[in-house]
Amino acid sequence: MSELNRQLNKRPAALLLAASFLLFTLLSGCSKQPQIVSHQGPTMGTSFTVKWVSSDADRDARLPAQIDQLLVAVNNSMSTYQKDSELSRINQMPAGVSVALSEGLTQVLKKALEISESSAGAFDVTVGPLVNLWGFGPDGRVIHAPDEQEITLLQQRVGSHYIELSGNRLNRQRNVYIDLSAIAKGYGVDKVAELLENAGITAYLVEIGGELRARGVKPDNSHWKIAIEAPVSGERQVQRIIEVKDVGIATSGDYRNYFEENGIRFSHTIDPATGMPIRHKLASVTVLASDCASADALATAMMVLGPEKAEAYAEDQGVEALMIIKADEGFIEKMTPGFKDYLVE
């Protein structure tokens, strides 16, 4: 056999070896080790961060745009800062007009009304006019406390019992202004979590403006760790660290958003019953719940209730919570038995 024929006879084996190597390389690339993928950005007047565990590069490349699109849709539905949002258009309608709500707005409003009823009105999505009056809403900041007559006048427009929700149809029996800022971020977290789960993600940590939801564990099988901030103005300190899995987490406090006049601090958390910012000693509440929207609303309700009533409410409703209460020197903690199981000692 000539030298040329011998070389030609070797080529099929060489080609087969090269093809086998290429196939092995491709398969190895598709089965990379799971790692944490992250995406973040602005939303709802704050920021968001989404982390998930994945080994699918193609899916990871698609998810950021889908997350962004979803959060824009939530904001377009529930923002009070956006004048053309679904909620803003409803607030501009006259009282007595029945209107069909989107599925998401229906779900959020239904949950809000349930928590309003269970908390005897401490959580109230119609408190918006008073929030605006005190300078904590879309109308902008104030430097002076409003007078008593202004507060009394606006209190006539406050009360969840003026909202009638039947199926997906809403009827405001008075000209109430609905503000979902104490539950919408939690709902946004839940929707992103749902998006991830529908994409096959089984481990993630979703956060919007400090409200979170966690599922599964990290690639090293450790739990997601969350730092609970100490309610100290002007600095960042960690009060507690918790390990979480399959739970929604939300914190409400009076130590970041406030203004002072004549030595008096006015919190952004408004008590619907008085029309005034809260004045009790409860500094912050962290709530754990099966979903983040519930945790978000429950934390606000408990902040309005104050330490004694909030503790009784948590026990009655089976809410797992950590309360940080102002003392003569520093703070004291009160937590439900179930919350202790999440602490990192």
Strand content: 25-35%
Order of helices and strands: HEEHHEHHHEEHEEEEEEEEEEHHEEH
Question: Could you tell me how far the N terminus lies from the C terminus, measured between alpha carbons in angstroms?
Answer: 79 Å
Number of helices: 10
| Biggest β-sheet description | 8 strands, antiparallel
Give a quick rundown of the structure.
It is found in: Cell inner membrane. By secondary structure, the protein is α+β, with helices and mostly antiparallel strands. Helix content is 38%, strand content 26%.
Would you give an account of this structure?
The structure is a single chain. This protein is an alpha+beta fold and 345 residues long. 38% of the residues lie in helices and 26% in strands. The strands form 5 sheets. Strands 1-2-6-7-10-15-16-17 form an 8-stranded antiparallel beta sheet. Strands 3-5-4 form a 3-stranded antiparallel beta sheet, covered by helices on one side. Strands 8-9 form a two-stranded antiparallel sheet. β4 and β5 form a beta hairpin. The termini are far apart.
Keywords:
345 residues, alpha+beta, 8-stranded antiparallel sheet, 3-stranded antiparallel sheet, globular
Draw up the topology in text:
Blueprint (H helix, E strand, L loop, with lengths): L2 H28 L4 E9 L2 E9 L2 H22 L7 H6 L6 E3 L2 H16 L9 H6 L14 H8 L7 E4 L2 E4 L11 H15 L5 E5 L2 E5 L8 E6 L8 E7 L2 E7 L4 E4 L2 E4 L2 E2 L4 E2 L4 E8 L2 H14 L1 H11 L2 E7 L4 E5 L1 H4 L5
Antiparallel strand pairs: 1-2, 2-6, 3-5, 4-5, 6-7, 7-10, 8-9, 10-15, 11-12, 13-14, 15-16, 16-17
Helix pairs in contact: 2-7, 4-8, 7-8, 8-9
Keywords: Cell inner membrane, Cell membrane, FAD, Flavoprotein, Lipoprotein, Magnesium, Membrane, Metal-binding, Transferase
GO molecular function, one term: transferase activity
Family: Belongs to the ApbE family.
